[in-house]
Amino acid sequence: MDKKLKIYIGLLLFILLGIVYVESIKPKEINWFPSYAAKDKIPYGTYILHKEMSSLFDEENVRDVYENPYLFLKDSTNRGTYFFVDNALNFGEDEFNKLLSFVKRGNNVFIATNGVHIDELNIKTKSFNSTSFEEKFYQKMSNPSFKDKEYHFDRDFSNLYFSKIDTLKTTVLGELLIKDGNDSIIGTKPNFIKNSYGEGNFYLHTFPEAFTNYNMLLDTNYEYVANVLSYLNKNNSKKEKASGGVDSVGSDAIILWDTYYKTGKSRITSPMHYILSSKHLKWAYYIALIGVLFFIIFKGKRNQRFIPVVTPLKNQSLAFTRTIANMYYEKSDHKNIAAHKINYFLEYIRTHYRLSTLKIDAIFYENLASRSGNSLEEVKKIFKQIAVVESKEKITQEELIALNKTIEEFKVLKI
Hey, how many other C-beta atoms are within 10 angstroms of the C-beta on 367? Predict the structure, then answer.
């Protein structure tokens, strides 16, 4: 190895060490991922709330649940308040039936998520919209015993509220307070409710950000969380005062903390995932790769062999597709093309939105609208158009183009 090559290698190693040093002292960027996991200390984790649960309830009565509700609630002896906090919750039909039976026996379920539509409880949510130029949103408890204190969250959130409730079984416990730029109240909407079901209650909240680390450390917002949790005494439904007051959190309240439905729950899918999730192991891995690269470069210079050029097989997929398309086009068989398009669209719904297309009814329309981001009217419109096409023996080129355009617009992600 000559002197010039040694200088190049030394310079490269110096640059590499410099990069490692800069990366090690660089301030870590704030991770705003909505994790809601108890292990995460990031702003949208729930580490603080999970840790403080033992001060609000007896420590031995706070239990982590690592399996889905369907499996956990097979044991009918489980009791207490099933506590769900996450960015989005999508229970399966069997799972939710288990939760209904759990509450009916005299237990509670607390759900804080960005939007919940529960047909069984006659409850729906909606995002608040107004014509005000500048809006400020505050959280407050409805009960006068909380002194109407308002709590502000200084980051953007979904501003959801309950647009439909069963007034005979539902009690409004908290509200979303909306003010304009002059601090004038322009609206109040329910965002925390209690719905009686059987011998127990569902507690539903549309502002899960309130329970995150960031909000808990913001001003006195931890008081709001404590006020919300004060309703979760296991005998709360029997102990509430006639005046509307609430009991303090009881020592006998059992909290079943859900860790299964969490956006940021731990998923070690492979050894490589574990290595890359650790800062030090990741850099050790990168340095090892660079060392292997050096070995290949300098070893290859001495033992390089001739590599024959192998002509790859020509991809005929595009030509085949064009041939089939031209055949259909020349025959003007628009109905056949439309039938294929409709079949592909139904397959897209089954695989992308996990919905069965065997039965197209009102429930199917509502589920597809909720999962796809399209309005219920748009869903009904496209299936009405499909029904018209399927009822005809022949269709025109214009009808085929219109059907294709409607389907492609439906697939576009709605923000």
Answer: 17
